[in-house]
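Appendix B, example 12.
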Amino acid sequence: MTPAQYASMIEMLIKATQSEKLIWEDYDGDFSTKIDGCSLLISSSYDFSVNISTYTLKMYNKKGVEFESFSYSENIDIHEYQQLNRLYNVIRDKYYRITESENTILQNLEKMT
């Protein structure tokens, strides 16, 4: 996959997630989805010993065999890290309905005050 294809894929994953055309499942903070039988898994990790956050995106074929892995930390490959950070946060927001819940709380607080 070329860098341009990778960047395009991340943008399409974000758009499909935002429009809820792509549904993700939560596995202890990691998120997984399938596209025509091929799986994607995105995970977030934090190394407390060096204070570095990392995102990893793994791709699997229809037989469940991993064929590609992208892993970026905040101190190396910052642009790619930011792309995966954005994807992870969009997935998390949609899965847990964070923005929707925040808006509900704010709207009801405004009514109360």
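Helices lie at 3-18, 78-96, 98-112. The chain has a mean pLDDT of 94.
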